[in-house]
UniProtKB/TrEMBL annotation:
Residues 10-154 form the MoaB/Mog domain. The keyword Nucleus does not apply. Transmembrane segments: none annotated. Keywords: Molybdenum cofactor biosynthesis. SUPFAM superfamilies: Molybdenum cofactor biosynthesis proteins (SSF53218). GO terms for biological process: Mo-molybdopterin cofactor biosynthetic process. It comes from Nakamurella endophytica. This is Molybdenum cofactor biosynthesis protein. InterPro entries: MoaB/Mog-like_dom_sf, MoaB/Mog_dom, MPT_Adenylyltrnsfr/MoaC-Rel.
Length: 163
């Protein structure tokens, strides 16, 4: 990893609306902008429906592809089709519950409702950090402000052969 980047990132935008042609909510673009500003190289955004098989395939492909960070956006709530945390948990080798709790706590202090009720998971699969963020613009901004410094630390630990 060079000094110019904190690593490679991939965004997985989980939204039934965009997949069905109902318009782009801009979530992927916002995450890309915020991660790039923080020094990540963003490989791209994959947009998929809230479907367990599609989510699992996207996460596994990202991990096999060797990105350092995968940020999923959307599908973290309590609706029946919000399966992102459930699938993410299956893919993780190790959970980072403190990071997930920090995201919810940050959302609570900022009164971002969908962050507060998020069931989002954060953890590590192989040498890739995976984090679920709620899909609203407020949740993305607040969540990434909390996640980015933690992700940088985790990625440094994962890439340090001495640890």
């Amino acid at each position: 990893m060079s000094a110019a980047t904190h690593g490679r990132a991939l965004i997985v935008s989980i939204t039934d609306q965009l997949v069905h042609g109902q318009g782009d909510n801009g979530a992927g673009a916002l995450v890309t902008e915020l991660l790039a500003e923080a020094g990540f190289t963003v490989d791209g955004t994959v947009t998929i429906a809230s479907d367990a098989v599609d989510i699992r395939n996207a996460l596994n492909t990202a991990v096999i592809g060797g990105v350092d960070l995968v940020v999923t956006v959307g599908g973290t709530g309590v609706a029946p089709r919000d399966v992102t945390p459930d699938v993410t948990q299956e893919v993780l080798d190790r959970e980072l519950p403190g990071v997930a709790q920090a995201l919810r706590w940050s959302g609570m202090t900022a009164a971002v409702m969908d962050s507060i009720i998020s069931r989002g998971m954060v953890g590590v699969s192989g040498s890739t950090m995976v984090a679920n963020i709620a899909g609203s613009r407020a949740a993305i901004r607040d969540g990434l402000a909390t996640l980015i410094p933690l992700a940088i630390h985790v990625i440094e630990e994962l890439s340090d052969p001495e640890i």
